[in-house]
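Sequence, please.
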């Protein structure tokens, strides 16, 4: 295969959770531009359909909107049935949907807050991957990408619920890679640094210096545009990373 061919995703189906906006939206665009048919996901069907239409207009690619709340296991089971029913296969799963609600110190953390963050950021991705991996195996293998964060490696005041579940997702990435290597399924984590998405704008509303501080903490002294994640996700999704599993890729401007 030529160098260009190893990045080619023609004939593949990619499911990107949380792709109505932000990093997931850029990932969906990039995977489609590499040839994949992409399932666009968010919580509401009308938002998924609108994002799918916008992406199709921009790229000429094939997109299907499928709503699912990633904190609800019964909805996740329905999503998998729908994905295989309508698209026939899933070759690439990007567990990208995530939430980072207003920061809270541990002493003030409620059970409701803890459960909400862990349900969407950890339990949902685990369940979705566990349902998809065996079916990927039956169809010759695949690639699963778990989106974590640079914060998973450091932790700090008031963000511990968010960063600890992402740290656990890093650990589970390694477990998944070990459990599913015999199925031909590779599993890796993609750890973003600061990207200018709705999540980052929300953090700026709580702390007006958040994105400036995040930029200052990177070696490159800036916040990235969401499209700057495309190269990394296409690399991990495609044969370009055929010998890469159980690892994490930091896309962080050197944070
Ligand atoms: N931006 C950053 O600087 C940064 C840094 C490190 C890590 N990350 C990680 O990157 C991922 C994407 O973040 P982002 O900044 O792009 O966030 P974002 O702009 O807030 O977008 C989040 C996406 O997830 C979807 N979503 C939220 N809750 C969901 C749920 N319960 N079920 C299904 N979909 C849901 C949203 O869709 P709907 O609103 O349509 O439901 C949206 O498409 C997250 O996992 C985040 O933790 C981001």
């Amino acid at each position: 295969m030529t160098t260009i061919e190893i990045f080619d995703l023609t004939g593949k189906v990619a499911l990107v959770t949380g792709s109505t906006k932000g990093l997931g939206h850029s990932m969906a665009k990039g995977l489609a531009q590499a040839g994949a048919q992409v399932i666009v996901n968010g919580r509401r069907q009308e938002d998924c359909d609108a994002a799918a239409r916008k992406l199709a207009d921009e790229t000429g690619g094939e997109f299907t909107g499928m709503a699912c709340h990633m904190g609800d296991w019964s909805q996740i089971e329905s999503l998998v049935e729908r994905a295989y029913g309508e698209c026939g296969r899933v070759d690439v799963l990007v567990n990208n949907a995530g939430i980072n609600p207003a920061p809270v110190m541990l002493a003030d953390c409620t059970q409701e807050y803890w459960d909400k963050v862990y349900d969407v950021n950890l339990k949902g991705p685990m369940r979705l991957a566990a349902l998809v991996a065996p079916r990927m195996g039956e169809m010759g293998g695949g690639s699963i990408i778990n989106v974590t964060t640079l914060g998973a490696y450091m932790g700090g005041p008031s963000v511990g619920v968010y960063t600890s579940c992402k740290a656990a997702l890093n650990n589970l990435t390694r477990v998944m890679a070990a459990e599913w290597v015999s199925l031909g399924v590779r599993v890796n984590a993609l750890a973003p640094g600061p990207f200018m998405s709705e999540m980052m704008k929300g953090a700026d509303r709580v702390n007006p210096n958040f994105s400036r501080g995040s930029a200052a903490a990177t070696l490159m002294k800036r916040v990235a545009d969401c499209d700057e994640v495309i190269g990394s996700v296409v690399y991990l999704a495609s044969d370009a990373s055929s010998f890469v599993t159980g690892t994490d890729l930091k896309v962080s401007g050197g944070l």
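The chain has one domain: 5-251.
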